[in-house]
Write a structure and sequence with these properties.
Elements (H helix, E strand, L loop, with lengths): L13 E7 L5 H9 L3 E5 L6 E9 L2 E7 L11 H12 L4 E7 L3 H14 L3 E6 L1 H6 L2 E3 L1 H8 L3 E3 L8 H7 L14 H11 L9 H9 L6 H7 L2 H15 L6 H20 E3 L5 H10 L6 H48 L3 H8 L4 H30 L1 H8 L1 H5 L8 H7 L3 H6 L7 H14 L3 H12 L3 H25 L19 H35 L2 H16 L6 H8 L3 H13 L5 H12 L5 H11 L1 H28 L5
Parallel strand pairs: 1-4, 1-5, 5-6, 6-8
Antiparallel strand pairs: 2-3, 3-4, 7-9
Helix pairs in contact: 3-11, 7-8, 7-10, 13-15, 13-21, 15-21, 15-23, 15-26, 20-22, 21-26, 21-27, 22-27, 25-26, 26-27, 27-29, 28-29
Length: 656
Amino acid sequence: MHEHKKINIAEDAKRLILIGNPNVGKSVIFGLLTGRYVTVSNYPGTTVEVTKGSAVINDEKYMVIDTPGVNSLVPMSEDERVTRDILLNERADSVVLVADTKNLRRALLISLQLIELGLPFSIALNMIDEARSRGWQIDIVKLSGLLGVDIVPTIATQKWGIDSLAKTVPSQKVSNFKLSYSEDIEKAIKDIEKYLADALISKRSIALMLLSGDETLKNWLHKNLSKEDIKRIEEIRYSVQSQYTEPLNYILNLERLKRIDKIVAEVATMEPASGGWLGRFIGKWSMHPVAGIPILVVILYLMYKFVGQFGAGTSVDFLEEVIFGEYLNPWVTRIINVLIPIGFVQELLIGPYGLITMALTYAIAIILPIVGYFFIFFGLLEDSGYLPRLAVMVDKIFKLIGLNGKAVLPMVLGLGCDTMATMTTRILETKKERIIVTLLLALGVPCSAQLGVILGMLGALSFKATLLWGGIVIFVMFLVGFFASKVITGEASDFLLEIPPIRVPRLSNILIKTLVRVEWYLREAVPLFILGTLFLFVLDKVSALAILERIASPVIVGFLDLPAKSTEAFIIGFLRRDYGAAGLFALQKDGLLSPIQVVVSLTTMTLFVPCIANFFMIIKERGFKTAIWMSAFIFPFAVFVGGVLNFILRGLKVSL
């Protein structure tokens, strides 16, 4: 047994139980509902871990229980037995079924079993963006009507739809959907129900489990029924089984799957593959370990032009120099000077480290347009079906660092947000894989905002500078990954991944995804930009910034050969990586960084310690000790790589 942060939950708190197939984002939703104050312990009598946390939903306290992933509620494994036992023994006031939208059929099997259990539940149709990118269109209103439960589309990794999902919890109802079996099975169900004691789940569901030959119910039966009643139930089961050549469990599941197939046919449609000969060419060769590389280079070049030059160049120049530089900042400065004649407050709002002139200018004028363009490009890659092919292409290379191609998916997600990507390392099967990917995310995968700023800075230099930066970061990550795979004990897992067809992305999907992600950026990042600026303001006021610059000078100025003022960027980079990169961006625009200094500073910043949100997520997922060891390694290692790069570039007199 081991624990994360311990919690005390009142026994009279309502129970909310999360159910779902393995790797559907259930634990991500659990984390969003409960925060990081959770208890992890083994379920009594087993080695299976169950996570519990507290949440306040609609002003009511809930104990939230994250159950092990299951494929059926008729147990075939210890994980499935634990999940079924929780439903059997814990009072379930509410249940949320987390479904992988692109594997709807799998989730509907559990839906029908939950309906048979007679429990109130709602469905989180998670990964709706991935389903749409694969061409699936789900009629959610019709599906909700057919099943008789609330269904909410969600993208857990972006926190999208979670508030709407939470609102369904207090109003959940028991579905009136009825699945009937053959006449002899229905009669057997009724006959068995007569002998069963009352339970927290329906007698019908227990009867179906017994007819399925569920041996794990023996303890419950002996606790609640007499030997004579148990014997009569066995006789009923044998009598029905004798009428079939196949096991009753198979017969019952066949009936469920027939109904599920009808439901899927009514509510789900798959768009045909598109893209013509070019789509077929990319679909075939983008997975090849050699031929796929030129395709990847072309994609990276297009991203560099779209995000790095157009987004960070044209758009940022217009917003920063025209909108903010000529209109907003001068206008706000005049108003504050007139309305608030207090020097300290004026400096706080519109000074060199002003909450308006620095924080909002950085967050809205510099970062937002770059992030927006990156989100558009990333959405195109998702919807085209290219990303799973990238996973196949890198599988053999990833095996060198103890991983398989599936590990590229959290890393690609890290290009959106490393914090959420760290949480989704749970899709990897082994502890070794999860630790290595967490380390590589913290080390060298820039989040969307940071990557956008980096591409913007490199876009002002040359494509050669971009390749140099990217090549060094990738080489360092593989070097660290290789040695980590030798040091960290454990085995790698097999690689299985569904490959969707290549298709032309839908404009409506791209716009929705981009708007959702921009909303996330504004909600999550902008407050931290303000906090970071306030932190710099305080450091400046107490003269600590100047002291830190002097202390860091031997490293920043001497070893990395950067201006002393860049110390600010590295200090604040721990609060948010993209804020640190934005500080370097401002130095470059002011002509304070040479091309070599740009590449050196960006390489060091990319490899620098994870931002504070990611650091806390590493603690939550991997433990405090692991998070400290990772950070203790990354900080000096990033500076070392930056210094070595500086000496090599200057020694060889490289022109960028």
